[in-house]
Amino acid sequence: MRGGKLVSMINYGWEAPAFYKKWMGKDPTGTPMPRMDGASIDISSPDLVRRDGVLALFIPSPRRGEG
Fold first, then answer.
1. Which pTM value belongs to this model?
2. Which stretch of DSSP H or E encloses residue 41?
3. Run means of pLDDT, 10 residues per run, the chain, 67 residues
4. On the CB side of 52, how many CA atoms lie within 13 Å of its CA?
């Protein structure tokens, strides 16, 4: 939240990608399924800030000198 407004919503899928593929089923139009494992911005998010910036704050990056 910023200034009392919701700026973005993060989802986190903890299951393997195969789980979500089975759960969602096949799209009859052939449209690829969005990635649902790991952190992602919710489809209904207000997008008042950059998506990549929000995820960068949420997903830890490797520390200097590590991996």
1. 0.61
2. strand 38-41
3. 85 88 80 82 85 82 57
4. 0
